[in-house]
Design brief:
Largest sheet: 6 strands, mixed
Shape: elongated
Helix content: 40-55%
Structural class: alpha/beta
Number of domains: 2
Number of strands: 12
CATH topology of the largest domain: Four Helix Bundle (Hemerythrin (Met), subunit A)
Length: 400
């Protein structure tokens, strides 16, 4: 059993997306399902107030102490008999490091610039005279390297090196928030999610995080907008339908970013978010055709939307094959596949395409074009998957 020791002698630290650095340590440990014997929050020998974060309910014991002396002396008083993960409240750490580092059997320093943490068996491994953790970690302590860290993130379909940041003022906080925001974007996604929506998402995520709004509330609003768009499109109220549809498209990025940046993602939220993404697009396509045909379900354009539905289902089934075999998405296989993901037939490509076509008075023709694009997407995924299975198999992905 090991102990997590957090030097909080200078307070709980800056707030990053509404969370103090102390709270981020605790939430990250919970989120990554790390089970220390206890977490010791050391307030030092000064008059630092006990942080409210310490009194909340956590899935591990939390103890607050007030020890004086050097870092090594304070650590020796707090953590006896076992390994220690030593942190402080000036450092923000990649959440993946908590469980990866604590699974190691050797002493390690995790360092990036001035930001540092230590995984040690004996406090004597630290500099005996140092008063802060940065100075206490000696050059002789082996450093964790990027080469030995499995940086692939399956949910984001990308590889991201581990990171640590020193956050001690507003300027550093702003820089770190920007980095964290962009690091939570998927490696392969559509053009509008990658290049058009981020400024709107950024403007919304920061105040929502600081107000501690749970991402599930954003998801619920997104669901309401999604299904409100269907009857609006079907009844021919396309302007109102577009407002709902684009609102949902932006919020679909907001809830995921908010959840990951504040460690508030949940199984329910994931089911609602990903289930909504999977289910709703064909309803929009059929509603577009129904509205343009004035309710004639035997019209060529509505029948084409039903073909679109069938192609969409087939395409999704094909895309299940690659992750079942290799543990990650098809669009992570090669740079070409990530590039293709930017433009394939998906909601965030088809919606702007149909909007332009409708405004230009070519709504029906645009639906036929979207059906053809969905067919081309389906063929590409089928042929590409068959080729990979037969000739170009990758190694299963290792992720942290």
């Amino acid at each position: 059993m090991f102990v997590v020791w957090i030097d909080a002698a200078h307070g709980a630290g800056e707030r990053v997306f509404g969370l103090t650095l102390l709270e981020r340590h605790l939430k990250a440990l919970k989120h990554r399902k790390v089970q220390p014997g206890e977490v010791v929050i050391d307030l030092g020998a000064g008059e630092t107030l006990e942080p409210p974060e310490a009194g909340r309910r956590w899935p591990f014991p939390v103890r607050v102490v007030r020890n004086g002396g050097t870092i090594a002396q304070r650590l020796a008083k707090s953590a006896v008999g076992g390994r220690v993960l030593a942190l402080d409240t000036h450092t923000l750490i990649d959440a993946r490091l908590y469980d990866f580092v604590t699974a190691q059997s050797r002493d390690l320093a995790i360092q990036d610039g001035d930001a540092v943490a230590a995984w040690i068996a004996d406090p004597a491994a630290l500099d005996a005279d140092a008063r802060d953790l940065r100075a206490a970690v000696p050059p002789s302590l082996p450093r964790l390297t990027q080469a030995e860290f499995p940086g692939f993130i399956r949910n984001l379909r990308r590889t991201l090196p581990f990171y640590l940041f020193r956050v001690s003022n507003a300027d550093e906080r702003a820089k770190v928030e920007r980095f964290l925001f962009w690091s939570n974007y998927k490696g392969s996604t559509d053009f509008f999610t990658k290049y058009v929506y981020p400024p709107l998402v950024w403007v919304m995520v920061r105040p929502l995080a600081r107000a501690q709004v749970h991402p599930n509330w954003v998801t619920i609003i997104s669901i309401v907008l999604t299904f409100a768009a269907v009857p609006l499109f079907g009844a021919g109220y396309f302007l109102a339908g577009f407002l709902c549809a684009y609102g949902m498209s932006v919020l679909d990025s907001v809830d995921g970013k908010l959840a990951r940046l504040t460690f508030t993602d949940s199984k329910l939220g994931n089911v609602l978010d990903h289930g909504l993404d999977l289910v709703h697009p064909p309803f929009w396509y059929c509603a577009w055709a129904y509205g343009l045909s004035h309710g004639d379900v035997w019209s060529p354009v509505f029948l084409a939307s039903l073909l679109m539905l069938a192609l969409y289902v087939i395409d999704r089934l094909i895309l299940k094959i690659y992750p079942t075999r290799f543990g990650r998405g098809l669009h992570t296989h090669a740079p070409m596949d990530g590039f293709v993901r930017t433009f394939i037939s998906r909601r965030n490509i088809n919606l702007p395409l149909f909007t332009v076509g409708y405004v230009a008075g070519l709504g029906i023709e645009t639906i036929y074009l979207i059906v053809l694009w969905q067919a081309a997407t389906c063929v590409y995924h089928g042929v590409r998957t068959a080729w990979i299975l037969a000739y170009d198999r990758p190694a299963p992905a290792q992720s942290a």
